[in-house]
Backbone:
């Protein structure tokens, strides 16, 4: 799916893996600022799932960690906190939680009932949302980062560093069939 498909929705809600990867990139603010849509995160994801990244030196990145602090992004309205608010969202959450973890189920319930796009890197979530909600646009961390690269045009060194941080500090590697995997590998 193209990221521009997500722009037909009023908002893109990010799940825990995308929050972790974007925070790990050390370019989260610039990436969020480049997206021409409102961006959201479920309060549950913020409080219980997207908690830390690795911050050790490149040769031993797991030596130390840093807590993920989303407050600066929320304070600048780059991220909006969302929570389940209606009976329909609660019912959708319960149904999704049979197959997904709580954060992904809450994120999905909010998106489905509000017609928001979903940003996730979780393969189980992607498959479930593709089969059950084909009208909901799905994007990944790499879609968001690539959009930033295409619109802001940072230099190759910054792109390399950003993707390295996502790989090492966020512990992310795109699946072998990811449409942007070849682009990702260009910067390895």
Residues:
């Amino acid at each position: 799916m193209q990221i521009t498909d997500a722009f037909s929705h009023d908002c893109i809600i990010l799940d825990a893996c995308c929050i972790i990867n974007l925070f790990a990139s050390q370019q989260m603010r610039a990436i969020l600022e480049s997206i021409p849509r409102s961006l959201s995160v479920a309060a549950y994801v913020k409080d219980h799932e997207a908690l830390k990244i690795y911050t050790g030196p490149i040769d031993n990145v797991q030596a130390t960690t840093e807590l993920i602090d989303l407050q600066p992004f929320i304070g600048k309205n780059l991220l909006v906190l969302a929570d389940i608010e209606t009976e329909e969202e609660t019912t959708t959450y319960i149904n999704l939680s049979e197959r997904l973890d709580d954060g992904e189920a809450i994120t999905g319930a909010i998106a489905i009932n509000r017609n928001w796009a979903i940003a996730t890197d979780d393969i189980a979530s992607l498959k479930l949302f593709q089969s059950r909600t084909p009208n909901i646009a799905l994007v990944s961390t790499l879609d968001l980062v690539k959009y930033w690269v295409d619109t802001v045009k940072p230099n190759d060194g910054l792109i390399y560093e950003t993707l390295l941080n996502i790989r090492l500090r966020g512990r992310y590697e795109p699946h072998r069939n990811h449409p942007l995997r070849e682009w990702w590998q260009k910067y390895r």
User: Anything to note?
Assistant: The mean pLDDT is 95. Residues 11 and 37 are 6 Å apart (CA to CA).
